[in-house]
Each structure stands twice: as structure tokens, then as C-alpha cells.
Amino acid sequence: MASLLLGALLLIVQPHIVPSRPAVISKAEATSQSVQKELLKKTVFKNDLKGNIHFNGSFQQLPQTIIIGVRKGGTRALLEMLSLHPDIAAAESEVHFFDWEDHYGNGLQWYMNQMPFSYPHQITVEKTPAYFTSLKVPERVYNMNQSMRLLLILRDPSERVLSDYTQVFYNHVQKHKPYPSIEEFLIKDGELNVDYKAINRSLYYFHMQNWLKYFPLDRIHIVDGDKLIKDPFPEIEKVERFLRLSPQINASNFYFNKTKGFYCLRDSGRERCLHESKGRAHPHVDSHLLDKLHEYFHEPNRKFFELVGRTFDWH
Fold first, then answer.
1. 72, 188, 213, 238: which one is catalytic?
2. Known binding site for 3'-phosphoadenylyl sulfate: residues?
3. Is residue 260 annotated as part of the catalytic site, yes or no?
4. Domain at 59-308, CATH from 3.90.1570.10, 1.10.3720.10, 3.40.50.300, 3.20.20.140
5. Partners of residue 223 on adjacent β-strands
């Protein structure tokens, strides 16, 4: 615990030098940074970051790894699969600490209290998909832990848009509320509605640039969400290596459920699948509208591939 306090103290005292950040900082940015530093000081010195300790020796600690997104990219599947590893302790719910002001204002002690109990050799993981597309989050995560290892799972941007709509649509159906067709969101004045939030979330190039201002690329592992659905084991192997975990997860931990149409998990003889809300069929979309969507994402995708130094099998 002393080492944790010392690390937090050093984080506050040391200047945050990020070569890729603008040399000129606006008054608003300077004020924001000042407020965040004061929040960290308040958290460390007032609450002393005292994690609850269980009688079995486990305790709560700040996460060393965060799944930052993307929404409808497969974050829940990734977390469930990663939880097969005995050295992973995962927070059950999305904490929204860095993107919700009321949560962030509670300080790091509150954040730690949302984490699961873990042993010293385990890695604590938190998942909040909205982090990836929030402008404030990268700097806030950086201020907490500059050595954080980040997991980002992405899928075909067009498919992600359809999944985004599908989730909101079914949420309304369950509440017996009407919801417009997807065409009403995608088309505005006869053109593709680029102001639709679901489309903005799929502009990976834009959001990734923001994260790379604070974290080098070798601290962000990108999981191919499309491949994770079709053949999860190779993708999880890569995650194990990135997190420097011993290879504990194997192919026998996955089996294809023909009824559900996707892979489920097998752990110590116990089988489990993702919630029924996962893997829902997308609405039918006119092929010409899909073409417009693919065309719109073509250039941002190309820039994203150049930015991260790899390609993906997207439209």
C-alpha cells in the first residue's frame, strides 16, 4: 500500500510531458488540467486510497488494464473471455468513472471501491466502452496511470453502426416505446446523416488520434472484433501476450453454439454464453444506403490503418 501511495504522489509531482500534445495550451485547457490535478491531490491525501482488504488476503486496487471500447465492438465478449484466465479480476459493471462528471468528481478512492477484490498477482480490469469516444478520458486515464495497458476492440464500422441502432431499438421495444427506423437516422435531406452519433462512434481514426496524444501505440492493443466472433482463441492469445499473462486460456475453452450462432465459453466443466441481447439480427438496410455508409468510412478507415500500422478486413 505504501508503494501505491508513493506512486500516486509521484504522479502528481512529476510534470506530464507528452511530446505529441500541442505546445500552446489554451486558458480553458490549463484550467481543466488544474482542476484534474487538484482532484488527484484531494483523492490521494484526503482518502489515502485505502482499499478494502478481505480476510483471505485479497484487496481492492485500481485497474492496471482498461477496456476502453468501442461500444458494440464486442467489449462484453472480450471481458468474459479474458476472465477465463485465473490471473484476471474483472469489474462486473461498466464504471463510467472517467467520462461521467459525477463519478469522476468522487475521486480515485470511489473508483477503487468499484473494483473487484483481487490478489497481488492478479490484473484488475475495468470495461467502459464509452471511454474510447470521450474527448476527456485519455488525459484523465493518463493522469492516473501513465503505464496503463489499454484494450480496444473494433469491428467493421458500418456493422458497428447497425449494432448500435439495434441495441437502442430493442431497448425501446422492451419498454413498449416507439422508435424510428434506421433509415430515418441514416438519411437527412437525401444525404447520409453524418451527424448521427452512431456514425461518429465509428470514426476510429478521429478518436484514436486523441488517445495517441497520451499513450504510445505499444500501450494500446487492438482486438479484431470480427475475428473474435468467428474464431476467438487466436485473438485471446494475443491479448494474453499483450498483458504479459501466462498462456492459460486454450481452444477447449470455446465451443460454437449452433442455436445462438456464436461461440460460448467452457470453464472447468461449466458452460456459459453471453446474454441473449448479444448477437441480435440487424435490421434490413437498403443496399444503396449501405454502399453510402461504406463509401463514407472508406477514407477514415484508410487513415486509421496508416495510423496504427495494420489493416482490417472491413468494407
1. 72
2. 72-76, 155, 163, 263, 278-282
3. no
4. 3.40.50.300
5. 153
